[in-house]
């Protein structure tokens, strides 16, 4: 009787237990790599904050430029396309996500 049970348990562990264990941890690994709803909400809040800070910086630079014509801003102005490239790309991605 023992000669029959050992091979059945070994075959069961090899063909059922081992694949189940591997696929279980693959699934855990894939779900851990995705963004949750709270992560997406946090990213949207950070994007909005970055946009507001960018607008405030532009306002401060305009005020300083009006007071002191010789002053030159250390960063690029918002009218330059290179300055807002990253934020525009994020906004485009957010709009695409909302459409889906």
UniProtKB/TrEMBL annotation:
One Pfam family from the record: PspB
UniProt record, GO biological process: phage shock; regulation of DNA-templated transcription
Keywords: Membrane, Transmembrane, Transmembrane helix
Claim: Coiled coil is one of the keywords in the record: no
Transmembrane feature ranges: 6-26
NCBIfam families: phageshock_pspB (TIGR02976)
Record-given protein name: Phage shock protein B
Source organism per UniProt: Blastomonas natatoria
